[in-house]
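Protocol step 4 of 5: obtain the predicted structure for the target chain.
Materials: sequence only (see below). No template structures provided, no constraints applied. The aim of this step is simply to have a reference model before the mutagenesis design in step 5. Sequence pasted as it appears in the construct record:
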Amino acid sequence: MQLGPKLAAIAKPRPASPSVYLKGLAIGVASGFGLETLLIKSGYYNIILKSEAKQLLKAQAQEKRETEATATSTQ
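Step 4 output (structure tokens):
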């Protein structure tokens, strides 16, 4: 299918200027910085840290109980 010269000129993709990529990069960096700042200021990371510490303690306690149960059953 042949396009007319006017339509071909409109439909031809043009490369984006470097400023478009720089604007996108700046917006991405700024939004990432803002999100990280929000998470730090809200204490979200502290909540996650405490939750993971509780899970680790539970796993260690379970492992200790299993080790003690194995040790007493073999004696």
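Step 4 remarks: The chain has a mean pLDDT of 88. The chain has one domain: 18-74.
Proceed to step 5.
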